[in-house]
Structures are given as C-alpha cells and as structure tokens.
Amino acid sequence: AARIHDKEIRVRAAAAYALGAQRSHAVTKWLLEALADKDLNVRFAAAVALARIKDPASVDGLMAACRDKDEDVRAYAALALGDIGDRRATPRLVERMREDLIPMVRGFAGMALSKIRDPASLEAIVAQVRGETDTKALSAAIYAVQELADPKAAEAVKPHLKHADPEVQQYAKDAMDVLEGRKKPEWQREAAAPTPTKPTDGK
Fold first, then answer.
1. Within the chain, where are the H helices?
2. Which end of the chain is more exposed for a tag (fewer CB within 10 A), N or C?
3. Taking Cα atoms as reference points, which of 28, 25, 2 lies closest to residue 15?
4. pTM for this predicted structure
5. Residues contacting residue 5 through CB under 8 Å, at least 6 positions apart
6. Residue 121 contacts by C-beta under 8 Å, 6 or more apart in sequence?
7. What is the pLDDT of residue 202?
8. 2 band by pLDDT with thresholds 50, 70 and 90
9. Is residue 37 within 8 Å of 43, Cβ to Cβ?
C-alpha cells in the first residue's frame, strides 16, 4: 500500500492494480487516494481496481471520478458503480449516459444502469433509446430497459427492430421479448439458474 504514494507514476499505477487484485475492502481507502492522483494512468488503475473490489464505501469517490477529465477514468468509474449496484449512483450515471461527449462513456454508464436497475432511471434511459446515435451506446441503453423490464419502454425500443446495425437489431429483439412477456430479464434468468454441482467421477 505504501507504493501508492511512490514518486514514480508507473509504481503508483502498478500498486493500484495490485491492491485491486486483493479484492479486499481493506484497501479501498488507498485506492480512493489513487483515484484522486494527479496522473491519469494512476486514476485509471484505481478505477479498474475499485471495479474489482465492489466496496460501497467507494461510491462517492467513483461518482466524482465519473466527471474526470479523462474518458477512460470516467468509463471505468461508471463500470465500477454498476458492479457495486448502489442506487445512490443513479443520478450521476444518468448524467454521464445523457451528457458525456464520448460514446464509450455513455455506453458504460448505460450498462452500469442495467446492473443497478433503479426504476427512477427508466425515463432517462427510454429517452436515450430514442435519441442515441452511437450504436454501442444505443445497444447499452436498450439492454438497460430490458433489465428494468417495464413494458412502457416497448414503444421506444420497437423501431430499432429495423435498425441498420444487426447488433442493435438483436438487442432490440431481446428487449422486446422481455418487455412483451415472452421471457424474463437476464438478471432473473441468471438468478434462477441451478448452481453447478461438483462432478463425482462416478463414485
């Protein structure tokens, strides 16, 4: 942990990655310090590490990092917030999904919202489905409404069944299957999946 304060950038970044590999909430405080480092490489390493740790104590710091000047830091801060799943992050993620100039960040924010599944985000995500021009970010927004599983979103999704991009078409088809009741959202299907049992080798 002491290396997180090293004078060498590469040492600080490597220390952040190493702390993330521990997957322990005990190292969160050091990673939050790294998330505010003056060097973007260290901040990025800290965001990636915090995404692995998933500590709710890092939510405030990650929300601040969603406004970092570096797009990769913003994107991975959004990803980390989605993995943590705390609804306190919903307004900041909606902001990034709607306002960020970088499509990757908008897409990561949309995917994060799909994991949090906060009904308060539905209106903003539906608006994004209607207005997003980047295909990856659009696919993320469609997936987010799928996971919220609110039939009111169907009208916004349906036109994308004829989208020029095949990937968007597939996301729209999958979402419509959920929104029209033909199947459950992915998070419910995963939750219902049986837990694999250890092979007995015939014994």
1. 9-21, 28-35, 40-53, 59-65, 71-84, 90-99, 103-116, 122-131, 135-148, 154-157, 166-179, 186-192
2. C
3. 2
4. 0.90
5. 12, 33
6. 90, 93, 94, 113, 144, 148
7. 47
8. low
9. yes
